[in-house]
TrEMBL record:
This is p-hydroxylaminobenzoate lyase. The lineage of its organism: Eukaryota, Fungi, Dikarya, Ascomycota, Pezizomycotina. It comes from Xylaria bambusicola. It comes from the Eukaryota.
Length: 108
């Protein structure tokens, strides 16, 4: 199951980040839509089930914060239960033009 909802558009009150919440639930691996972060992204992952994991740029993780850098791209994936994630996007920028065969940018 995958549900997404916009909490806030970029504004002075949000320091010009958009805020989106996503609920993902699956025992097996479930993939959302492949996308890129033109200006990066900040994520807060909250486990509904203590075994739930979200796959990010550094592999499978449980609860906590991640921050994929500018230009990174991936499938949002969940396994082993349910979780909620808050995604903070600088200027609300997200791109659905990336493909899995594209090279990831270098990290510093």
């Amino acid at each position: 199951m995958y549900r997404r909802g916009k909490i806030a558009l970029p504004s002075a009150e949000t320091r010009f980040f958009s805020i989106t919440t996503v609920y993902m639930e699956s025992e097996e691996v479930f993939s959302g839509q492949y996308h890129a972060h033109p200006y990066g992204e900040i994520n807060c992952v909250v486990q509904v089930d203590e075994t739930a994991e979200l796959e990010g740029m550094n592999g499978w993780r449980g609860a906590g914060w991640t921050s994929p850098g500018p230009g990174t791209h991936h499938y949002p994936r969940v396994r082993k239960g349910a979780l909620v994630a808050l995604f903070f996007l600088p200027a609300g920028r997200i791109s659905y033009n990336a493909t899995p065969d594209m090279k990831q940018p270098l990290s510093v």
